[in-house]
Each structure stands twice: as C-alpha cells, then as structure tokens.
Amino acid sequence: MIDCDVHNDWATAEVLLPYIDRNFRDYFERGELPGPKGAFPHAHRPWLHPEDFRRQDIKPRNQAEHYSLMKESLLDRYSHDVAILTGEEALEASTLANPYYATALVRAYNDWLADYWLPLDKRFKGSIIVAAQDPHGAAAEIRRMGRNPDMVQVLMSSGSYRPFGDKFYHPIWEAAAEMDLPIAVHLGGQGGINYNPIGCGPTTFYWETHALLLQPGMTHVASAIANGVFEKWPNMSLIIIECGVAWLPALLWRMDANFKSLRKETPWLKRLPSEYARDHIRMSTQPLENPDNKDHLWAVLEAIDGKHTLLFASDYPHWDFDDPTKIPLPPAWRENVFELNARKVYSRLPQTQKAKVAELAAA
C-alpha cells in the first residue's frame, strides 16, 4: 500500500519560526501568527466548507496527536508501506503576490517537514513544496531539498498564474529533472494572484465548486503536453492529485483530434497528445468518480490505461477521504494501482522484485 496523498499538518504555524528566513521573521511573526493558528491568514479561500475540511472523527488537540491519530486511523489500520506527505496550508503560499516571501514560507515548511515529520515514521516520504510564482527560487529549493533521499516529488498547487507547461516555469521542470523527481500538482491555491479556477468566473456554493475544480488539472495537462515539456525532459512525469480522473479521456480525444489538424503550431511534438499522456501523466485515485454502474467508470479508465496510470491516494484526513477497501477498481488492477505504479513513477522508492517483474511485463 503506497498512498500518494497524505496531509501532514501543524497545530500552529509557530512551528515554522525556527526555520523562517531572518529577513522575513518579523513579517511572519506580525503578519501570520496573530491570525488563525492552524492556517496562514493569507490563505483566504473564496469558498468556505459548510462544516470542515477535516474528517469529523480526526480532531487532534496538539501537534503530537496529528501523528498518533494518523498512525492509528491510516498507517496501521490499512497496513501502509509508504505514505507520501503532501502538507496542508503550505500549498497556499502560491496565492501570495510577494514571490520572495512565498519561497521563504515553503522553504521553512520543507525544513520543518524534514526535521519533524520524516523522522517520526519510516513509512513517511516527503514532497518538496515550491512557490511556482518564483520559478528560480523554486528551482533552487528543489536542488537544495532534493539532496534528501526521503523527498520523492516536487509539489505545486493547481492554483497558478499561468498553466505549468509555460516557459515561465521551465526552471522548475529543469531542476526537477536534474534531481530525478516527478512534479505533482495538487488541488489548492484558489485565490490571491492565481486565476479563478472556474472558467466562467466564481461559482456560488462549495459543493458546486468542488465538483468543478478539475478545470485547472485539465489545463496543466494540456499545457505540459502542448509546450513540449516531455520532449524537452523525456524522463519527467506529471502527477495530478485530487482533480478527479474521468475527464482525462475526453480531453485527450479532443487534443488528439485538434493536433492532427493543427500540428504545424507545435512542430516540436513528435507524437499524439494521448501518447505523451500514457507515458508521462499519472492521476491520483482520490476523488475517483463513482457512478451507479461501475462498468461505466471502468470503461472510461480503460481508455487511459488506468491499470498502469492510476496511483492510490486516500487524501487523509480530509472530509472526502477514500477508504482503500472501498475504491471501485477492477480486481486485476489493484496491485498496480495500490503499489506497483507508484514504485515506477517515484524512482526513490525501493524497487521490489515484484515491481521489476511487473515493469518488464508491461514493456
């Protein structure tokens, strides 16, 4: 069991004080800490959850309980081998207009993650969170933290100023490729300098909005393919986390059709968009669409070779957490989705003999 989306949180943002750049310490103490202790005050979300983003049965009272509850409710209960930590409020640094402060915040978070969370449990692996609005600062952070073997991916919010295939972000791709780390894009970062995640403008209700938050994921996939990211860095992978899955086949069908007619615009592309996606795009299962007739879902997932492109994610401890025993996958896919696909895309995870045999069989 390899879980590619487990949220580790702080009881208070004060845990970052020992790590924050001294040039921003006063700014942090005066601007951040007087606000809500569990979140950056700059993380003003336009849509409020009607209850809480966290599961009602997971209510840690202090920092230590964040781990003890995770161990009891997730790691031990479902026999996890690996839990890839994806942070929480740190992703919201992407909403800040000041790119230097944003990079200072994620740098402090990454140091705290490495010092506090990763030593707690040998099953933990980390994500290097970067502030994408500062591509050169992000690249430096990837090279700095990428030396830690327990960091297994670069992580950005889906909220962004531009689609991630844009040349503006190429320093991030270059650094990630240099460190042999995949780039993951996680739902979040709605607000601030980032574009509205809903194409026609702000929606009204949280549940309505939550159903539509797949739109940035679609845009980043299309952008990475069209801008030739995977031609320039042929060993790179893009992992889309918590943006749904069933939309991908329709997007790729449309991209293939348009590319065949208009390919002169992007002469650097050598293959169909769907072929780049098959080799380089990976999707988290959470939140996996769940129609009344699961055969409908399976047919859609078959169109993207879901057996080899899906990665299990629980999204612990959020309200829409997915119990791994209840995910509607074809039985023959489960070993791949729950373990083998992750071992292939996360090159820093130990490669078991079983994973090597499966990779040879797929080839």
Task: Provide the fold topology.
Blueprint: E1 2-6, H1 22-31, H2 63-75, E2 82-85, H3 99-117, E3 124-129, H4 135-145, E4 151-157, H5 170-178, E5 183-186, H6 206-212, H7 215-226, H8 229-232, E6 238-241, H9 247-262, H10 273-280, E7 281-284, H11 294-302, H12 306-309, E8 310-311, H13 334-345, H14 353-362
Parallel strand pairs: 1-2, 2-3, 3-4, 4-5, 5-6, 6-7, 7-8
Helix pairs in contact: 3-4, 4-5, 13-14
Protein model, in words:
Helix 4 links the parallel strand 3 (about 125-130) and strand 4. The protein is built from 14 helices and eight strands. About 40% of the residues lie in helices and about 10% in strands. The longest helix is centred in the first third of the chain and has 19 residues, at about 100-115. The chain is an alpha/beta fold. The model has no long low-confidence stretch (mean pLDDT about 95). It starts with a strand and ends with a helix. It is globular.
Strand order of the largest sheet: 1-2-3-4-5-6-7-8
DSSP helical segment count: 14
- What is the average per-residue confidence, as pLDDT, rounded to a whole number? 93
**Helix-strand sequence:** EHHEHEHEHEHHHEHHEHHEHH
Radius of gyration: 20 Å
Shape: globular
Which strand-content bin applies to the residues?
5-15%
CATH class: Alpha Beta
- The beta-strand count equals 8
Q: Which CATH architecture is right?
A: Alpha-Beta Barrel
Largest sheet: 8 strands, parallel
| The CATH H-level homologous superfamily | Metal-dependent hydrolases
Q: At the third CATH level, what is the topology name? A: TIM Barrel
Report how far the terminal alpha carbons are from each other. 23 Å
Approximate helicity band: 25-40%
- How many domains make up the 3D coordinates? 1
Query: Which residue ranges are poorly predicted, with pLDDT under 50 across at least 5 consecutive positions?
Result: none
Structural class: alpha/beta
